[in-house]
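pasting for ref
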Amino acid sequence: MRGAERSVPAEHLDHSTGDVDRRLDDTTGAVDADFVALGLGGTNMMAMLWSVAMGRRVVGVELRGDPALGVHWNIREDFYHHLGLIDQLMAERYPVERLPHRGDGRLFRLRECFYSPASEPGGIYTDEVISGFLSSLGDETHVAGLIHHTEFIDDRWADGTPQRVLTIVDPPRPPAEHDPSKIGRPTAEVLDGPSTFQIGASEALVMMRRYLELIEEMDLAAGVEPRVRLYLSHRVVTGDPGDDGVLTWFRHEEGFVRGPDGRQRLRIEAVRELDYKGKFRRVRVPGTKVMDLGTPELFMIAQGFNSDDAERLGFKQEDVKVDHHDGRGPVVAQADYLAGLMEVNVDGRLRRRIASEFDKEGNEYWVRQIAVGHEDDPEVGWILVQVPDFKTFDPVLAGLVPPGTDRKSKEYLGAHQHLLREYYLEQVALITEIPVAELDEVQMPYGPKLFSLVERVGADARVAANGVVAGDSFGNGHFLTSGGAITGMVGHASRVLRYWQRRDEGTDTDTAIRELADAIKEDTDGWLRVSAQEFSQAVPINFGAERINEIETITGRDSAQRATTIDATRRHRHSLVPLNPSDWRRLVIHAGRLHTYDLPPLSETHPLLRTCPDSTAERTTPASEPGTGSMEQTPVAAGAAS
């Protein structure tokens, strides 16, 4: 009997079937669209919204499903006005029954969902607002928070002693009505202004995604040609990067098909994602077929850093170099940071700190930290700290493991993580004024994660007769300013609005796309110019140009001063445990308590001078002027820089 049982075909025992949801490869209304967005981040979804508002048919293709970006954005006022104009254009073009509605029956207005003086902020999810769940409880809410506290801490050394200068500036006033002058401004001008709002990146993306989804659902249900088609968990057809060999080459299918006029035809596939040996891999959904989207008038690739699709079309990026005027000439604009989400009540606050760190030879390095919260939400405390170039986090050098320890062993990796967390909490304590011992007990849903920022940019945003590259896929500046979000959503996306306006004016497609590509490059170049000071100068750009002048006046420092940088130590740090971009999607919770208290008041005394019991106490610090390389130590009086 046992042998007979084993010989029974498996299909006689397993009643499951391999049916596939046919919607995964349904192309109804998606062929030869006016606009195809490859990648559904903020840049492309705003471009889709502008396109629909201008009466165009759009298609969105996204590999990763629903938005899951965990960071928090500081948003300039322009974004609010862009949403308002989209609402206005939609209402002027379509009857009310063809506009998206919230779950409670009210019109879904993007600007009101984002922010309204008539509703309240808090620790809420966008879906709770759109679905009508919160309004059913009597709560009228919006998803963005206002910035009520803008603070700058300058803890750099001067004349051989630590000094602290605090600058607290008035918060920007939230807009009371639509301002048309905020539409289409140069990106550099936008970034020169202060941040007004804060919002979780995923909540902003969900707001745009749900709006587009509702349009698609209502059109398909009504049996009319859909204005929007969304293909989530899809990609342009490509071979698996892990496959090789002659047979794979023969089976290769191309997702971009170049026509005789240079325009690209797009073919996509539905995929499933799996975590395979620590890496995300994707395979086509069994039973689905390749989907031919035809040839769109315009497609835009905005898929984040290092877009494979853009690269397949011949697009290349080059490192951006910055001259720090330290005798080394132009060097690659690069910096390393530790990022973490701590459940600390940062509240509606944008706090920045710059400080001096010294290597063992006495060379000075300027390092930065930023703390970003959310109005009335004590669980949001995104804190990023810069790693000085001399810091290695090498467990062997720290004496935590013996020389020769395998870098892949749990002992080595555990010691490396210990060093990262220890340094991170020390730096968080300096910007929040919360003691390390107390921070160690706070719940931490994410991080600290080490990552490297390298500015890169392409030469031309146009990659096909009908295609451009935008967002971070084209180029990136410094992230601490939320410059990527603003450049993409406010800059690049609004250039698509201008593209359709030019087409309606009678401009031919080739000329309009050329203008679009040039505008994308101009926006990114503006971001790079403005963010260059984040690699060397003191004052953060998202405080606004007027506030930068104010801070320079108070501190007595010219923000064009430079500090020393080293490349060799950074390379050593990266070689210990290679940076993994997918770590942004891996949450490892450090359990602890929720810190609901307000942040302690900022002390006017430099942290290095607080542990001295009286004004005659001494500390050992670098003796000479920072940067001379002297190994001498000299006492510094506690009262020298109070």
